[in-house]
Amino acid sequence: MAVQQPFPFAQxxxxxxxxxxxxxxxxxxxxxxxxxxxxxxxxxxxxxxYTFGAGSTLLFPRNQLSAVIKQPKDGRPYKAIVxxxxxxxxxxxxxxxxxxxxxxxxxxxxIFDKHALLESFFxxxxxxxxxxxxxxxxxxxxxVEEAIAILRFIDPETDSLLADFSEPGKINLxxxxxxxxxxxxxxxxxxxxxxxSLSTFNRDFKKSFRDTPQKWLTQKRLELAHYQISExxxxxxxxxxxxxxxxxxxxxxxxxxxFGYAPTDISNKHTKG
Length: 273
Prior knowledge:
Shape: globular
CATH architecture of the largest domain: Sandwich
Strand content: 15-25%
Helix content: 40-55%
């Protein structure tokens, strides 16, 4: 069972997935500073994927469309501390501190090697989870500022990422959708990420693809799944989540309806061959 235990101040949570496989597709409106205590997390994005185990520390940039899979490992549940760095808190910080924007950066997941400052910071948060009363805002602000200061110290590109307060602008819709169609997100989210309202997104989509988003997305996901099963010799149970389906039985039904045969027919053919 997945459990999220709120921290005694805003934007900090303790996430626990106990002995179960958990998958979600996310786009966070804030940067997430994460330290994994146990278990394993896989992050799948359009052009790359990452696997993080116990002891990993990462900074997950905001507005990144990703599939996140969390699961137990080595007999221990997935467990992590997550610090949310909201735009509001970052703007407050950088109103007092001049950002160093001389270093160019990309909005990709930042992975950090073990560092004494990182270890001590996350260790310092652990006792707070036992508090019954709310942590004073002044202390909460200090911990957020400490996190930002540590990131700035160990990563010269931090300011270029954290001090970027821009929102997604209108971008090339066909190019974006060809890269991200496997993510099972609401159309409103696709619209936001391409700088469009839902109505404008639907209009521009039909103009570009001559089809509705729902039909096009289903076809693209099924074609990707077919390729993974037929060419990569993977099983349906291993690909349906990665190709944008939430339910194996629904995936199998849609696959057979579209291609005229079940995904297991391909797997059985490979086995016999």
